Amino acid sequence: MDNENELNLELDNIESNVENNLKVKNRFEKLSEKVILTSKERDEAIAKANAETTARTQAEKDRDFYKDFSGNVSKYPQATEYQDKILEKVRGGYSTEDAVVAVLAKEGKLTSEQPKPLTFNGQVEGGSAPTTMDGNKSMNDMKPDEKLAALTELDKSGALANALRGR
């Protein structure tokens, strides 16, 4: 009988070891599932945070672009035709003015509007003598010393000799 008791004890030990091994195996499976789920949640949270940061940065660049664009249009009037291309450059990291210059240069439209000098027709306030600021007077409006100065200037440039040969 002792032999039979020993066999039963061994069988009981084997069964308890199998049960313990199953419990351990189940625990490992549950823990690995939890690790996988936690890493997925972490990756999703990081992706969401990155998307929000990117959207915020994009909105700030757009805001800065529209704020600076109107000032650059006064320098480069043709920039309004290429606003979308300029905005793409600004989103790519260019400053607004650099983007305007780059796009207009690429399109062959880079010319800055130069302010025209002030010209006055007739008399300037504060004086009694007629004063013109643009220097283009007709011969009838010139005084004799102004006519002499104009002829001397034409003679120096050679335009007077060319005009006389043409007659």
Describe this structure as you would to a colleague.
It is a single chain. With 167 residues, the protein is mostly helical. The protein folds into two domains: 9-107; 136-167, no CATH class. It is 69% helix and 0% strand. It has five helices and no strands. The longest helix is centred in the first third of the chain and has 74 residues, at 2-75. It is rod-shaped. 8% of the residues are buried. The model has no long low-confidence stretch (mean pLDDT 79).
Could you give the distance between the termini? 151 Å
Helix content: 55-70%
Q: Count structural domains.
A: 2
Give the mean pLDDT. Answer: 79
Q: Which short descriptors sum up this protein?
A:
single chain; mainly alpha; 2 domains
Topology summary:
Blueprint: H1 2-75, H2 83-91, H3 96-107, H4 144-157, H5 159-165
Can you describe this structure in just a few lines?
With 167 residues, this protein is mostly helical. The chain has helices spanning 2-75, 83-91, 96-107, 144-157, 159-165.
